Amino acid sequence: METVQAMLKLLGEAALQLLVQPFYYIAILFIVLQYIRQMRMERQLFAVKLRDWKSLVFKSLITGLLIGVSVSLVGAFIGSTLTSTAVLWLWSITAVLMLIKIRYLCFAYSAGVITLLQWIVGFTPLADRSDWLGTLAVSLEQIDAAGLLLLVALLHLAEALLVRAQGDKLSTPLFLEGKRGKLVGGYFLQGFWPVPLLLLVPVTNDASMGISTNALPWTPLFGADWTQGWTFVALPMIIGFSEMTRSMLPRTKAKHAANGLLIYSVVLAAVAIIAWWQPILLPIAAITSFVLHEAIVWRSHWAESSRTPLYVHDSRGLRILGIVPGTPAEAMGLSVGEILYKVNGIRVRTKEELYEALVQNSAFCKLEVYNFEGELKFAQKARYAGDHHQLGVILAPDEQANYYAASGPASLFGLLRGMRASNRRGKSESNSEQIQG
Q1: What's domain 318-395's architecture?
Q2: What does the pLDDT read at residue 408?
C-alpha cells in the first residue's frame, strides 16, 4: 500500500512537471500549424472545407494521451534511466534537425544522433573539463542511450498501430504534378500525436523531483540499482507520419506505411536490447535508428515510382479523387478511386459534360459508376437546392486546373511562413508548395 501511495504522489509531481515544461505545448503548436496549413490547402484547391482543424487537434490530443499512458505502463517494466537532461538533449537536437527538414521531427533521428555523440565524446577528454563544454559532455554521457532507443522503438510501434487504424482517415486529396508535367490527383496522409510520458526511472545524481525507497513489486528490465530509490520523469514526445501517394488508395497507402513502421520498431527494439547488454554495439544501434528510418522513406518513394498514377481520368469516364462529407455523393456511397461513367444516362468524360448531364434533371440524379474492381454499379438520389454543384465529388485534375501542390521537403521556416498552393501558370520557386515527405 505504501508503494502505491508513493507512486501516486510521484506521478502527480511528474504530471505537474510536464505541465510547466514548454515542449508539450510546442508539440501541440506544431500540430495546430500543420492542420491549419492543410485546411488552407484544401480550400485553395477545391473551394471547400473537408474537415475542421480544431476537431483534428482535439482527437490528436486524446489519442496521444492514451498512447502516453500505454507506453508509460510498458516503460515501467523496462526501466530506462532517462532524466530531465535527456529531455533537453532530445528536444534540442530535434529542433536543430527540424531546421533542415520537418520530417526530422521524428525522434528516431535525434535519438540516433545523441547516441553517436555520446560514443564520440567517450573518446575525448571533454568530460574532464570544468567549463560549459565539460558540463555538456558529462550530461551527454549520463543519458541511457539504449533505453532511449528502445523508447523510440515503442513509440514507433504505437505509431504503426495508429497509422493502420487511422491513416486513411487523416488523408487529404491534392492536385500534384506528374513525371511529365501533367497534373494528376494524389493524397497526402499525415497525422501527429503529442505523447505525454511519465516514465518510472531509478534515482540518479540529477534527480530533480521527489524519490521513493519503497521496494518495487517487480524488477524492471533496464536501469541501474533500483534499491537506491526510484521516481517518475516527465518526457513529452510527439509521434507522427506523413506520406504522399499518387498510385494507391489512402487505406492501401496507410497499410503500406504501417507495415514499414512495424518492421522498424521490431528491429530497432531488438538492436537496442542487444546494445544494452553489449554497450560496444551502441554505435550500430544509433546508425540503425536513422538509417533504417530513411530506408522506410525510400521504400515509400520506390513503391510510388514503380506504379502508374491512379487518380487520372480514362476512356471510361471521370475519376473520383475525393468525396466532400455530408454531400449527396457520400449519401450515394461513392468512393475514392471510382469512375463516373454515366450521369442521368449520359456518358461523361469532362466536367462540362458532367454539368450538362446534371442539368437534365434538377430534382433527381441517376449514376452509373465503375467501382475500384472494375464492376459497374448504380446509384441514385434526389437533389435539393443548396447541394454541391458536383454532388460533392472532387474529380481528378484536368487541363483546366490552375493550382497544384508541388511535393518536396519542408523546413521549419517554411512551415512558419505559411504555405500556399502554387499556380500552375507562372510557377516560381518562391510560391511552390512544399509538402512534407
Answers
A1: Roll (2.30)
A2: 47
